[in-house]
Amino acid sequence: MFCSKCGANVAEGVAFCSACGQPVVGYSVAPAGAVPAAASPAYAPPAQTGWQAPPARAPVAYAGFWLRFVAWTIDRIVLQVAGSIITLPFAASVGIRELMRTHPSSPEDFIPLFENMRKFFLIILVLEWLYYALLESSAWQATLGKKALGLEVTDLTGARVTFGRATGRYFARYISFFTIGIGYIMAGLTAKKQALHDMIAGALVIRKI
After folding, report:
1. E strand or H helix that includes residue 207
2. In what order do the strands lie in the sheet with 203-208?
3. What is the pLDDT of residues 25-47, one digit of tens each?
């Protein structure tokens, strides 16, 4: 083989002419520093680290009217017993026996009785409010009646309600009462089994499956 530039004899397999440095025809030389394509590392997208799938929520169902009615009945029994014990010391101050003994003859004679009865009902109101608000905003999320039936009170996202929301829900029950009970019956008719006071307070009553 001869160099195409100077005509010098070039040995087989040599890339350049030893006389003039001309590249030998028919022999390809890769550019200096070039890396074969096969040697280039394949691109891989950065791995996502620290991401975890959200935990699956426990299945729940909304508590209907009759379940809630049974829970309410249990709560009424509990409150009746507790109220009798707490108000027993105040019962003597009502003065019914004294009035019957003196045979009141004018409306003014009943004024002390009405005043004491007002205090009596105020004690019962505070007892019921604290019973519902404290228990439904506690870790139980339920009164004793609801707890017995596996029911819980939550907000619209399924989270535990605050004491303030539980208080609002309790007093909103009087609105359900003054609608001739229709506000309570709504718990059996609405999509999420919400009574009127649940809607006002933004709350749900659920039953864990």
Report:
1. strand 203-208
2. 60-62, 203-208, 151-155
3. 665 444 545 445 455 555 555 55
